[in-house]
């Protein structure tokens, strides 16, 4: 677990565990990574992927000239990447890096071809860029999230990705 400024992140799902404002954590979650693994059906703070939301009938139709059955965890649909979507995976990181001239917290995950039924090997990267901005003369902590997904395997020509973060404040 790494902490920087007002934010705390976990390698599990590149989770935003804490966002502290005036000494109070304003995001919902759990105090340990183990509790996220055990109880996180609300997806608190997780990076949701490969596809956020539901894929109807747990099937991608007509991609690369074929259909792909996905894991149905919200019968009959696939929800938030399946039973073990990206929010349930251990990311590499956190590490502190420079991103566009600013300090950022970086995570990386390699999603293998066929994981939860999705085609193609994908390298997924997330940067959390933390800044203090002045709004009406008051300093406020701001968190920007930047995502980048790259199809790195040669198994398919295309894949499907729709990512978000599922924090509750």
What is the number of strand segments?
A: 14
Instruction: Specify the overall morphology.
Output: globular
Return the string of H and E elements: EEEEHEEEEEEEEEE
Helix segment tally: 1
List low-confidence stretches.
Answer: none
What fraction, in percent, of the residue positions are helical? under 10%
Structural class by SSE content: mainly beta
Q: Terminal Cα separation, in Å?
A: 20 Å
The biggest sheet, with number of strands, parallel, antiparallel or mixed sense and barrel status, is: 4 strands, antiparallel
Mean pLDDT rating? 93
Spatial order of the strands forming the largest sheet: 1-2-3-4
**CA radius of gyration:** 17 Å
Query: Beta-strand level of the residues, as a percent range?
Result: over 45%
Description:
- By secondary structure, this protein is mainly β.
- The protein is 4% helix and 48% strand.
- The chain contains 1 helix and 14 strands.
- It has one helix spanning 33-39, and strands at residues 2-4, 7-10, 15-21, 24-25, 46-48, 54-55, 59-63, 66-69, 78-79, 92-99, 102-111, 122-135, 138-151, 164-166.
- It has a 4-stranded antiparallel β-sheet, with no helix packed on it. A 4-stranded antiparallel β-sheet has the order 10-11-12-13, with no helix packed on it.
- A hairpin with a 4-residue loop joins β2 and β3.
- The chain starts with a strand and ends with a strand.
- The mean pLDDT is 93.
């Amino acid at each position: 677990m790494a902490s920087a400024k007002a934010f705390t992140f976990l390698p599990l799902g590149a989770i935003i565990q804490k966002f502290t404002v005036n000494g109070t954590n304003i995001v919902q979650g759990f105090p340990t990574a183990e509790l996220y693994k055990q109880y996180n059906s609300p997806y608190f703070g997780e990076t949701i992927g490969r596809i956020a939301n539901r894929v109807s009938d747990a099937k991608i139709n007509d991609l690369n000239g074929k259909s792909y059955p996905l894991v149905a965890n919200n019968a009959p649909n696939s929800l938030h990447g399946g039973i073990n979507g990206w929010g349930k995976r251990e990311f590499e990181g956190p590490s502190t890096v420079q991103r566009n001239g600013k300090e950022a917290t970086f995570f990386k995950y390699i999603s293998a071809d066929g994981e939860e039924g999705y085609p193609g090997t994908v390298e997924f990267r997330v940067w959390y860029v933390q800044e203090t901005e002045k709004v009406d003369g008051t300093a406020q902590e701001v968190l920007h999230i930047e995502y980048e997904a790259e199809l790195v395997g040669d198994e398919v020509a295309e894949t499907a990705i729709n990512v978000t973060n599922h924090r509750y404040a």
